[in-house]
Amino acid sequence: MNSVKKIEKLLTQALLHDGAMDYGLYEYELAEQTNKMRQSLIQDRDEFIFVVTENAGSVAMLLLEATGAVHINEQARERLKTLWPAPAYDSNLKQLILPIARDLRKGEIPLNGVKIAR
Description:
By secondary structure, the protein is of the alpha+beta class. Helix content is 51%, strand content 19%.
């Protein structure tokens, strides 16, 4: 199992430096999360929700919008960049990567629901 520091480095590479993501990991760990995410999205009245995971050095991502749109891996990252225009994307992820890495190290996959202030 990777250390928090190693997971943090992998997440940073994938999310902040446009690193590759693994579709097989998405299928293995995240595809089954879609219904749970949709329920959380509706219950919490979020605009969108995303989840990132890491396993054996690979990273995968899933983003679900209130509209029902589903985005996977690089497409999810690019969509998140449009939902959080610069500099918000980098700033927000720099704050979230370490807590996500800690949760992943504990074997938890954190759901990140987002409401947009208007």
